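Appendix B, example 12.
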Amino acid sequence: MLWKTGLLVVFLGTLSVKSEPILPSFRIPNLPLLLQNHNIPNPDVKYINAFQEFLVKYLKEYKTNEEIIQRFTIFSRNFDLVERYNLEDAGKVTYELNEFSDLSDEEWKKFLMTPRPGKPRKTSKALSKSLETLPDTVDWRNVNETNHVTGIKYQGPCGSCWAFATAAAIESAVSINGGGLENLSSQQLLDCTPISDKCSGGEPIEALSFAQTHGITSARNYPYYFWTTKCQETVPTVARISGWIEADGEEEMARIVGSKGPMIVCANFATNKNRFYRGGIADDPDCGTEPTHALVVVGYGPDYWILKNTYSKVWGERGYMRVRRGVNWCGINTEKPLLPVL
């Protein structure tokens, strides 16, 4: 026993202890003093604590003290805004601070895109008008215990929602038609769709046209980089569409989504209630109808649509959003919803 103990002591003595790497905390030391020195003499501790938590959660860093003050000021205003919205819509919709909380209204609108109105093309397919009985609720994430919707993506600072929405709708179409569920390349659509403004916005109908003419590869073959790169023309094609169906109004959209699959929609997202959405059925009568963001309708309930977004799983209802059905919420039918057809 003594020998074993002694050996243990000697052995431990020969071990080299490696120190853990020091990781950045992202918290700002002496933030209250910094604020006081920049003419914010008595900052409320709730703003300071929330701002420090925000920095850590979203790995935020600012280059200068002036930028820290600017972002703190914007964040504090948005903090008050979220509190007010939660009081106004209590019991219906909830809101929360998120990664966009240090952006001004003008910066938030620049983060979004401005799609050009799409024009019907001869490749648009006619939908049979035979009405079939559709269920009150449809969710393509679970149809007969089968998922036909890929996971939530994160577009980052690039206005590439139009490419992501197009890829997502094609992914579901392939799966519903028995081809398996696979992530397709939004980066290929972003880089190679000729009529688009790339990270500054684009039109899903142009991305569909590209997928019809050239096909689309997998995300594994052509991954997403958060910015525009040079179009790669030698990647293998894993899916190709023959055209698409356009819906005239929400009633027809329900019929198509219920029987065929998820559809691409564009809506006005340049509102703070959409920016800070956390959960519930969104219904903002002051939203406006000019499309600024592309999403995918993956299902519906009796009085709502289920939208798939590209702001990561920490936004909204684990990356999804429910919005009021039948009221043209935020101009969801300003541009015709689109269903890719294989």
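Strands lie at 93-95, 138-139, 243-246, 263-267, 277-282, 293-300, 304-308, 320-324, 338-341. The two ends are 75 Å apart (CA to CA).
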